[in-house]
Each structure stands twice: as structure tokens, then as C-alpha cells.
Amino acid sequence: MSPDPSSTTSEIIERDRRHFIHPYQVFDTYLVDDVLPIERGAGAQLVDTEGRRYIDAVGGMWCTNIGLGRDEMADAIAAQVRELAYANPFTDMTNVPAGLLCEKLAALAPGDLNHVFLSTGGSTAVDAAYRMIQFYQYAKGTPEKRHVISRVDAYHGTTYASVSIGGKPGDRVPGFNYVDDTIHHLSSPNFYRYGDGRTEQEFADDLVAEFRAKIDELGADHIAAFFAEPIMGSGGVIMPPADYLRRMWQLCRDNDIVYVSDEVVTGFGRLGEWFASESVFGIQPDIITSAKGLTSGYLPLGATIVSDRIYDTIAEPGHDRYLAVGYTYSGHPVSCAAALKNIEIIEREGLLEHVRQIGPYFQQQLRTLADLPMVGEVRGSQLMACVVFVEDKATKRNYPESLDVGKLVANACEPRGLIVRPMVHLNVMSPPLVIDRDDVDHIVATLREAIIEVRASLEAS
After folding, report:
1. 225 inside domain
2. What would the mean pLDDT of 84-92 be, rounded to a whole number?
């Protein structure tokens, strides 16, 4: 029920317009286009304030993995609020859910990632990793290793450090400052857009060679870390080509560069595994950052999972060191209780295996859209997917950016009961892990109708 059940939809929209500053709000269009006011949700469905139903093919924001409206999640959260709503997480205090969660995450994470720093989301998890790496290099006597390598099209968050590590052009807008002297960006691994006639293996070879050249340019003794999503999420579900990721990881190992795998999106089942780094791509990171599916969006929580090597270095006794990184809500007991219950549900209901079954069907059916004239590519893995729209299929020429063709398609999906995420030339999808074949069929059929409608309107204009 709405906090003010007497409010009409138009009143809700107007109140939002007057007072709510949205993430990534586009001010000009926000004054014209109405927001979609969501009132409730269950499973993979959302219901707006007028009672209209939608399949949420975006999964909230890559996060509602177990689906919405779970009574046992509400019960676990309520029980923890009654038992202990908050506890100071600093230095010599802890709480039971935080300790249990860190133990569980250490068990789920690959290799020797046995130590967990808890924060409030993906951005703070990446920010904490960045600062911890600085501290690690100082502790091991190599403070000159302060440069960080990332990639164009990468998304790593929106704190000052994490947005600087990210490389999405759309995030680097006039009016904001970024760390530019010690953070560097290699080429995007987007083979469809930048392959330029090369084979996928040749493209991968060139990307690896570029990293090797950057190491030579800066000097391995000046590079602290490399940050990479296993699959780029907000950059457009960009799949790593060939054996590219493993070779990048090997270069990090050979040159004493910390490898950070940003699994904020890919963790907790989206690719059918708890974490994708080792299980899917065969790499053993030094740090994994995670959030989103950690609680399935029921409460905010982020986790930075750190290797024994890094932890043992910074925690070595006899140096009077302390980690000057922390948040009031680090290890929040209610968020940790939600994460524990969320992981329990994923395990009990076999959702990882379900993703491994439904994911290939989702990808297969989405790829049937490739016969449409304005669909340049359909890409993804398991329950991460992206449809790329182009004006000319042969040359891969984009529509004018001002047209915002992805938004046009998303707008056409909405009245048909489907929510997809528009990103200029793309529609991105990351549905809850609980979707079934009927949901997949509805998503694909609705997208097809919407794309055909938009194409027809563009040709007529």
C-alpha cells in the first residue's frame, strides 16, 4: 500500500518531479516525460499505481535475482530489526549476521579470497578496493605502484574513485572532475563495434598487446591494479573476446599487478555461478567486488572480498597500521541478515542450476530478433543480454545519438507490459533468476513488436 493511499498517479508524478533528484537524471526530458510510478512487485513482475502489470526484464538494476515480494525475506528482515537493528561496525565491535555473512562469502568465493570488507553497494565496494590496494602497496614497500588500469566502456560505480576507474563515455560528462593522472583506460573489448575486420582471436591479441605496451610505458613497478568486469554490464553487456581475460590476468600475475574482478553484476547467479571469475572465465582474482544480487536488492549492501596475500600484508603485526576506510553502515546487521536469507533461497531453490537451464533458452530466443533490419547484434550470456540497434546493418552505422533509439524501443515496450533498459543505441536486459520459459517468450515477442513499430515510425518520418 502506498504511504499516502489517497494520492492519485498524477499527484505522485508531480511530487516526484518537484522533489526527487534521480540517479542520472536527464533534466530537459525529465521536465517533459512522466516517470513510471511503481507501487508493488512480485517475482519478475511489477505493478504501477494504475494497476498495470509489467515483466521487469531489467531485474530492477541487475539486482532482483530471487524476485520481488518474498515473504521469507520480509520475515528475516523484520526479525533482525527486532533482534538488533544496528550495531557499530568499527574496530573492536561486530554483530552476528555480519560475521556469518563474511564466513559464507569466503566459502563461496574462489581460491584464497577469505577476507571481506562490507559496505553499502557496488560503488563503495569498488572504492574500498581502490583504497585498500593503495594501502597494500604501501604496506609491502612499493608505494610508487599507484597507477590503475581500466578500460573504455567499463562501469565501476559513481563515487569519485569508482567513476574515475570506469570508462563509459556517457559517465564522463562536462561539469564533473575525475582522477586522470593515475587512472588509465585501455581499449574497449567490444568486438562487434571495434573488431574492424579482424578475427576475434586477432582482436584479443591486439587488446593484450595494448596492455603489455601500457605496462612498458608506465613501468610495472608503477602499476598497482587492473580493474575488469568479467562481462561489461552497463557498458552494453560486452562479452570478452576469445581468451582475452585469462591472458590479461596472466599479465597481471607476471607483473605483480593486483587483479580486481568487479562482479557486482555477474555475481550471485546471473551467469549460473556464485561468481563468474574462476567458474566461467578461469581466472583467480586478488579481489572480487560484489553487491546487487548479494541481497537481490532487498536492502543495500556491498562486499569487497580480498585474498590472503593482500590481507596478510596489510595486517602484518608490528607496524601499528590500521585501515582508514569505513562506513556507518558497514556490516549493517539487517542488510547482512537479508543477504544470508537471499543466499539460502538461491541454494535451496537451485537457482544457479535454473539459470544454467533457462539462460541458454533466453539467449537463443533473443537471437531470433537478429532477422529484424535495425537489430545489428544480440549478445550476452545466461541472464545478461543486450540488443544493439543500428540504422544500417551492413556498415553498423548507428542512428543519430539525439534520436535515442533505445529509449524509443523501451517506450514502445512499456504499454505492452515489458520493461527493458534503454542505453542510447541499446536495450539491456538482466531479468530475475526466477523467470520461466513463458516469461522469456513474452519478453522476446514483445520486443519484436516494439522494434517493428519503432522501425516503421522511423521510416515514415
Report:
1. yes
2. 94
